[in-house]
């Protein structure tokens, strides 16, 4: 297993050398930028949704931790 890890690392360096040798970086700039932006979005988006949720619940006077019936329980009581 350790040998396979070293082979994988060696392959990455080989690919990097080949990209430099053949001047192929221009074809990788846009996908790299897209991947970076997507990764940042995936990391930050849950926090943004949480901030919006807390802000809207505070604006409505509905604070997290209060024992209020959920929408599902109200619907089940009506039905």
Structural commentary:
With 79 residues, this protein is mainly alpha-helical. It has a domain at 1-49. Helices cover 75% and strands 0% of the residues. It contains 3 helices and no strands. The radius of gyration is 25 Å and the shape is elongated. It starts with a helix and ends with a helix.
Task: Please tag this protein with its features.
elongated; single chain; mainly alpha; 79 residues
Summarize this, please?
The protein is mostly helical and 79 residues long.
Secondary-structure blueprint of this entry?
Layout lengths: L1 H20 L7 H31 L11 H8 L1
How helix-rich are the residues, as a percent range? over 70%
Low-confidence stretches: none
Sketch the major β-sheet. none
Provide the residue-averaged pLDDT.
Answer: 78
Report the total helices. Answer: 3
Q: DSSP strand (E) fraction?
A: under 5%
Radius of gyration, in Å, reads 25 Å
Global geometry: elongated
Number of beta-strand segments: 0
């Amino acid at each position: 297993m350790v040998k396979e890890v070293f082979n994988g690392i060696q392959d990455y360096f080989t690919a990097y050398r080949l990209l430099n040798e053949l001047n192929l970086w221009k074809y990788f700039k846009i996908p790299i930028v897209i991947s970076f932006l997507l990764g940042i979005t995936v990391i930050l988006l849950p926090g943004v949704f949480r901030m919006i949720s807390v802000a809207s619940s505070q604006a409505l006077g509905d604070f997290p931790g209060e024992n209020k019936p959920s929408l599902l329980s109200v619907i089940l009581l009506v039905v």
